[in-house]
Design a protein that fits this description.
Layout (H helix, E strand, L loop, with lengths): L6 E5 L6 E5 L3 H7 L8 E5 L2 E7 L5 E6 L8 H12 L9 E5 L6 E5 L6 H5 L10 H21 L14 E3 L5 E3 L4 H4 L15 H11 L15 H10 L17 H14 L10 H9 L32 E2 L18 H13 L9 E6 L2 E6 L6 H9 L6 E10 L5 H13 L9 E6 L2 E7 L5 H18 L3 E7 L3 E6 L12 E5 L7 H19 L6 E8 L5 E8 L5 H19 L6 E4 L3 E6 L18 H8 L1 H4 L6 H7 L21 H9 L9
Parallel strand pairs: 10-18
Antiparallel strand pairs: 1-2, 3-4, 4-5, 5-7, 6-7, 8-9, 11-12, 11-15, 13-16, 14-15, 15-17, 16-17, 18-21, 19-20, 20-22, 21-22
Helix pairs in contact: 4-6, 4-9, 6-8, 7-8, 10-12, 10-13, 11-13, 14-15, 14-18
Length: 685
């Protein structure tokens, strides 16, 4: 059927020659997908939604409707599509054609009836359909496809998003890699030349296939380990078979399983120079022996982001950007099996067991560990699970290294683990705020107020896992995710205003004009006053206002509810002066985060529609008196005119993912690192 549609001549690579490529008419795709109806929607990818379609002759297709985030011209877009279409391999999803009509950019692929690998791999019922032989064939097929992209195709494409959901399965469960060239369409011009692509994600995927567990959602209950460190410890003790998915026990070949674990661990080593090339991986998979394989070193604690060191010292006001560690080398680290680690694990488990929303804010202390968590509200459980499985692209952390470290099996570690258990076991919403103390550990958790309880606890569970990976053994740390904030320390956190460290995320899209800034200033000023005047359980406000034409501006602000009204006002004021003004002035999208408060605004609705908040108890007693103190209230007024200049930002959604960059004027190396942060997985083998 595709051949019956019009064919368009696209310029070939380097303009040297032209070649025909099927250009499918828009009305044909409308008919095939029932006008892109929700019933035909297969899923939402990072570059846009995907729909199932059936052509008039009965042929099934998958149509990717690209978002408008590609700013390429039509000719350049056609050239890139032509290049991608030339990639032909049995382990790559085949591109059948495209449609470029009425501002639509549609890519038509062959339809994969068994959906994606993650559908089977991480489902307790469907996993049994993938016996060991099928999984081993899938591993080898993925390796062959990646080798072709890296070395055999003239494009030398680096797949920056290799994960189970991007591996599709045909009728016979043969793997076919999808989304291999999307970065070219979305103007990642350094894709083939960057020297910063990490080689971890084939190894991660390999270990996920063997274990049936998601790396990014894995949290070993006893030791708080990631899947990678858990696998390495089992392998190093000669207990590698303990990692295997139990449904594989009847069908597995032990020598093949152990060989794959060995290869996977070689691929996730911290030093890229130690990782094997993909051609070496193919050779090792085909070999009958593991005797000649090198011994892998222990994997890095974190494999989600490239970490950059700032080229300039951080300013006194504490503003920093993505992945810059304000507390690094200041607070100190804890040691393995120390009391601090145990207390931290306790807090993590407690926060991730929360069953009561508490308006999204949670605070706790166990031993020396103090923690806070703040969730964003209003997401469905399904979205939360998806969010938790793939490392939150909005996750930020700060490790306080001047406080010291806890040692393994210490009282601090036990108390921290106790707090983690308490927080992750919460069954009462408590308006999203939780404060705990066990021994020396203090912890706070704060969820965004419109987040449902299950979303909040899931966010906190993921945040705990991430903080433990990124700040191992630190007695004090903070982690910010899209829907929650978690803090822990060996010092008191309750009713204590903490403005630093402060960080921001913003989009590189269009800039805001003076009218936008004026409306934003008015909206945020109103929301700030509403949030600060909230009770002792909830200091949160969200709203929207009109811009030009049909465009609207959406925003929210939130403080930890243990703050006084004056402190909440002051914290949000600093979020503007130290955050927006210095980080993202005149941008149309921004999130400013600090330990005690945060603010966000967008040009699209991001708060769950219809979210309801039970009326919190009215402030009373000493708490009310404190909030009414005149000296405190003197700190609250902030002129709207000032805010209109300060708040110049909105986060622009790009069909499920955002491109965040640092404000700092940093060199090309920095920009490459930010480009890597665009995706959740990347590989260069």
């Amino acid at each position: 059927m595709v051949n019956e549609h019009s064919r368009e001549t696209f310029n070939g690579e380097n303009g040297e020659r032209s070649q025909e490529f099927p250009s499918i008419q828009l009305d044909v795709l409308h008919a095939a997908t029932n006008h892109f109806s929700d019933e035909n929607k297969l899923g939402q990818g990072g570059f846009g939604p995907v729909y199932k379609g059936t052509l008039a002759d009965g042929k099934e297709i998958a149509v990717k409707r690209l978002s408008e985030t590609s700013s390429q011209g039509l000719v350049e877009f056609k050239n890139e599509i032509m290049l991608i279409a030339k990639l032909q391999h049995r382990n790559l999803v085949r591109l059948l054609g495209c449609c470029l009509e009425k501002n639509e950019k549609l890519l038509v692929y062959e339809f994969m009836p068994n959906k994606s690998l993650d559908v089977f791999l991480f489902d307790s019922k469907l996993a049994a359909q993938l016996d060991w032989q099928k999984r081993f064939n899938i591993i080898k097929g993925i390796a062959r496809g990646i080798l072709y992209l890296h070395e055999d195709s003239r494009l030398k494409i680096i797949h920056r998003d290799l994960k189970a959901s991007n591996v599709l399965l045909d009728h016979e469960m043969n793997p076919k890699i999808s989304d291999f060239g999307m970065a070219r369409i979305f103007e990642d011009k350094n894709e083939a030349n960057t020297n910063r692509v990490v080689g971890t994600y084939f190894g991660v995927l390999l270990l996920e296939i063997i274990s049936g567990k998601k790396n990014n959602g894995f949290h070993h209950l006893e030791h708080g380990e990631s899947l990678l460190t858990f696998a390495w410890k089992l392998w190093s003790k000669g207990e590698g078979m303990e990692l295997i998915d139990q449904v594989l026990v009847p069908s597995c070949v032990a020598s093949e399983v152990l060989k794959c674990i060995h290869i996977g661990l070689l691929c996730v080593q911290e030093d890229p120079a130690d990782r094997p090339t993909m051609s070496s991986v193919i050779f090792m998979l085909a070999s009958d022996s593991t005797r000649t394989l090198l011994c892998p070193s222990e994997p890095a604690f974190s494999v989600g982001r490239a970490i950059a060191k700032p080229t300039e010292p951080i300013s006194d006001d504490g503003v920093f950007s993505v992945n810059e560690r304000y507390w690094a080398n200041i607070i100190g680290n804890y040691t393995a099996n120390s009391a601090y680690e145990r207390d931290l694990n306790s807090i993590f488990k407690e926060i991730t067991s929360i069953t009561k929303s508490n308006y999204g804010f949670y605070s706790n202390k166990v031993g020396e560990v103090n923690a806070m968590a703040l969730c964003r509200a209003g997401l469905t459980f399904t979205f939360l699970v998806t969010f938790a499985i793939s490392f939150d692209p909005y996750f930020l952390h700060s490790c306080a290294n001047n406080i010291g470290n806890y040692t393994a099996n210490s009282a601090y570690e036990r108390d921290l683990n106790t707090i983690f258990k308490q927080i992750t076991s919460i069954t009462k919403s408590n308006y999203g705020f939780y404060s705990k103390k066990v021994g020396e550990v203090n912890a706070m958790a704060l969820c965004r107020a419109d987040v449902k309880l299950d979303v909040c606890t899931g966010c906190l569970n993921e945040t705990i896992s991430r903080v433990k990976l990124d700040c191992p053994n630190n007695k004090e740390a903070i982690g910010w995710s899209a829907d929650c904030t978690l803090r822990y320390s060996n010092t008191n956190l309750s009713e204590k205003l903490e403005i630093n460290p402060q960080t921001c995320l913003y989009n590189t899209g269009s800039t805001a004009d003076e009218y936008f800034q004026l409306r934003l200033g008015e909206l945020l000023s109103d929301l700030r006053n509403k949030a600060a005047s909230g009770g002792a359980l909830l200091k949160y406000a969200a709203g929207n206002s009109s811009l030009r034409a049909s465009e609207r501006l959406y925003a929210l602000v939130q403080c930890t509810p243990d703050l006084s009204e004056g402190d909440c006002n002051h914290c949000l004021d600093k979020a503007a002066t130290n955050g927006i003004l210095r980080c993202c002035l005149k941008q149309r999208g921004c999130r400013v985060l600090s330990p005690s408060c945060n603010l966000r605004f967008e040009t699209y609705p991001f708060v769950e529609a219809g979210a309801e908040f039970p009326p919190p108890p009215s402030p009373s007693g000493d708490r009310q008196k404190e909030e009414e103190e005149p000296n405190k209230s003197k700190r609250t007024p902030v002129l709207v005119a000032s805010l209109s200049v300060i708040f110049g930002v909105a986060v622009v959604s790009i069909s499920g993912f955002l491109i965040w960059k640092r404000r700092n004027n940093q060199d090309t190396e920095y920009r490459e690192i930010q480009l890597l942060d665009l995706v959740e997985g990347r590989i260069d083998m």
